[in-house]
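Q&A log
Question type: sequence-to-structure
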Amino acid sequence: MVGPHVASYALPFEQGDTPPTGAWSTSIDEAIRATKAAFPGGHIVASMDKKSFRGWQRQAVRDHLELRGIPLLTTKGIEALLEHA
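Response status: OK
Response body:
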C-alpha cells in the first residue's frame, strides 16, 4: 500500500475543528484527490497513528473521512483487507 502521509505536528489543529478546517481539511482532501488520481478505481482507505493525535483530533479526522466515504482502518483491518485481495 502506498499513499500520502500527513504529519500531525506539521499543521495547526485547534480544538473545536470538527471536522478539521483550514490546512488540515485541505491536506486531507488533497491526499484523497492525489490517491484517487494515482490509483483510478482503487479502493482508498486511511490509517492513523493513534499516538500522534489527541482523542478529539482522531474523532475530527474520522468524521472528515466519513463525510468523504473513506474508511479509517486499524492495522488489523488493513491486514484483513489485504488477505482478501
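Response note: Residues 22-27+41-83 form one domain.
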